[in-house]
Amino acid sequence: MHEIGIAQEVLRIIEEQARGHGPGAVRSAQLSIGALSGVVAESLEFALEVCAKGTRAEGMKIVIRNVPARGICRNCGREWDFAPGQMECPACQNSDIRLDGGDDLRVDSFEMEDEKDK
Fold first, then answer.
1. 92, 73 in Cβ contact below 8 A?
2. 104 and 37 in contact (C-beta within 8 Å)?
3. Confidence band (pLDDT; 50, 70, 90) for 114?
4. How does strand 26-34 pair with strand 79-82?
5. 3-state secondary structure of 6
6. Which of 35, 61, 68, 87 is most buried as measured by Cβ atoms within 10 A of its Cβ?
7. Which fold has domain 3-113?
8. 91 in helix, strand or coil?
9. CA atoms of 85 and 68, how far apart (whole Å)
10. Average pLDDT, the chain
11. Smallest Cα–Cα separation from 110: which of 50, 27, 38?
12. Looking at beta carbons, which pairs linking 47-54 to residues 24 or more positions away fall under 8 Å?
């Protein structure tokens, strides 16, 4: 399960950024996962829960936004949400297509506990 390594890197990024915001706990994290990234959202959520035990991110709420890949036809210019295995333009059936995005994973934001919340 490569999601364990990804979860560890996500937590490293959050911890690195959280250092500048004080000692509070991380309440939530918002992630974007591309449709072509190869990351299974449910597996990543589970891996984050396991890897966060004993850290300031333990118990954080995880919000995942799924990001589609965009297909762009070089023949007719049509754009559409690309599905894996779709090898031609839905408008002109041309196979000269370009993919735009949908292959990344991002930590969009996170929220920390405020001192007054303690």
1. yes
2. yes
3. confident
4. unpaired
5. helix
6. 35
7. hypothetical protein PF0899 fold (3.30.2320)
8. coil
9. 14
10. 92
11. 27
12. 47/1, 47/3, 47/4, 47/6, 47/7, 48/7, 48/10, 48/11, 50/4, 50/7, 51/4, 51/7, 51/8, 51/11, 52/7, 52/11
Can you read off the two tokens belonging to residue 117?
A: 């919340």
pTM for the whole thing? 0.81
Write out the DSSP string of 8-30: HHHHHHHHHHHGGG-SPPEEEEE
Give the residue extent of every domain in the chain.
3-113
Tell me which residue of 83, 90, 4 sits closest to 43, measured CA to CA: 4
List, in sequence order, every residue forming a beta bridge with 109; answer none if it has no partner.
Answer: 30
By CB atoms closer than 10 A (0-12, 13-18, 19+), residue 51 is buried
Rg (CA), the chain: 18
